[in-house]
Amino acid sequence: MLRNGEYSAWFRTRLGQGTGKVRFENGQMSGGDSIISYSGSYEVDGSYFTIVLTTRRHAAGQPSLLGVDNVQLKLTGVSNGRIATCSGTLDPVSDMAVEVTLIRVEKDLTPAAQHAPDQPIVYHPERLPEPPSSRSIKRSGSR
């Protein structure tokens, strides 16, 4: 099942490959890369899904891997919850195949990631275990 959240996107066409970030939220999707933004909608049916998206150039740069900047694209695919794969062809250039792999971005659950970004991390060196004394090191290392 394609779940709400952020995904890293790896896309491939006959012109090359690239990466971007995509966010899925309650039937709407948005995202982009360094030169193209994506927006659209999606529907989920169990582990299968369909995405209809529009691409728009937002910055100067290399040519689009789609061959054109502003297009509508329909993708169909399957998801296991963490990884999704989909494919489709461009409209109106129907011979340009597009393959996309989506990898769900998992939240970082480490204590450092759980604090508010504007608050400093408080370290407690007093909670570290005591180092061995020099006497115990000599004792354990001597014969």
In short:
6% of the residues lie in helices and 48% in strands.
What does it look like?
- With 143 residues, this protein is mainly β.
- It has one domain (5-108): Lipocalin, CATH 2.40.128.
- Helices cover 6% and strands 48% of the residues.
- It has one helix at 134-141, and strands at residues 5-13, 16-25, 28-32, 36-45, 48-57, 72-79, 83-91, 97-104.
- The longest helix is centred in the last third of the chain and has 8 residues, at 134-141.
What name does CATH use for the topology?
Lipocalin
> Main β-sheet: number of strands, strand sense, barrel status?
8 strands, antiparallel, barrel
Query: What is the CATH superfamily label?
Result: T3SS negative regulator GrlR
The structural class is mainly beta
Question: How many individual domains?
Answer: 1
Total beta-strand segments? 8
How confident is the prediction overall: mean pLDDT?
81
* Helical content (DSSP H or I, runs of 4+): under 10%
Which class in CATH terms?
Answer: Mainly Beta
Low-confidence stretches: 133-143
Q: β content, as a range?
A: over 45%
Radius of gyration: 24 Å
Topology:
Elements: E1 5-13, E2 16-25, E3 28-32, E4 36-45, E5 48-57, E6 72-79, E7 83-91, E8 97-104, H1 134-141
Antiparallel strand pairs: 1-2, 1-8, 2-3, 3-4, 4-5, 5-6, 6-7, 7-8
Note the main attributes of this structure.
single chain, 143 residues, mainly beta, Lipocalin, 8-stranded antiparallel barrel, 1 helix, globular, disordered C terminus
